[in-house]
Amino acid sequence: MNDRAVLEGMTEEEQAAFLACQEKVRDTNINENTLLATDYLNLFNEIVMTLEMVPMMPEILEEAKEWRPKTYREHFADSNIADKELAVEVYPHVPRKYREPFETTVSQMSNLVQATITRLGKQLEAGDMELVQVSASASSRMLQRLMDHASGIIHGSEKTMDQSEIDAFLD
Asked: What is the C-alpha separation between 77 and 129, in angstroms, rounded?
């Protein structure tokens, strides 16, 4: 199940490595066409759930402050999923047409999480619980949209969210 466009722009050596990786990931949780796995998004699902709880449990923001982004490889190296070594092994062979938008989207998610934690902290200090609720909810929705984009890329889309839309949200 090869998309010829994926192979375009790859050297013969890169194509051979990619095709070998496709064989290795067959019948695993790693997408055969992109060589990416949705399990990586669990890193962000956890922090989104934590941030959503801040309005009801303000003390949980301290836990959120401990969250750190992890690269794809770091996440899988630390995970317990069955295919973790394979996910790390094939990542260097993810086609650029997927890897670049994926990494851009991951960076956008990480930046948004950090900005949200900072914003919620300031709003809690000011005692504005209504604004905390609105911010937590809006940030959660934006992070979910970004995760949907990341999931789309993992499944073969090349689209990212426009950075200006994220910047407008953060302002």
From this structure: 38
Integer Cα distance of 73 and 95 in angstroms? 16
Please name which of 44, 150, 25 lies closest in space to residue 93, comparing C-alpha atoms: 25
CA–CA separation, 84 vs 52, rounded Å?
28
Structural domain of residue 99, as residue ranges?
Answer: 4-170
Rounded Cα gap, residues 113 and 138, in angstroms: 12
* pLDDT of amino acid 160: 55
DSSP-derived 3-state class of residue 88: helix
Mean predicted confidence (pLDDT) in 29-40: 94
Beta-carbon contacts of 135 under 8 Å, excluding residues fewer than 6 positions away, are 116, 119, 120, 123
How many domains does the structure of the chain reveal? 1
- What DSSP character marks residue 102? H
Retrieve residue 86's tokens: 């394979």
In sequence order, the β-bridge partners of residue 30 are 37
Q: How far is the C-alpha of 90 from the C-alpha of 35, rounded, in Å?
A: 7
- Tell me the CA distances in angstroms from 139 to 49, 100, 112, 158, one per residue in order: 11, 24, 8, 24
pTM to 2 decimals?
0.86
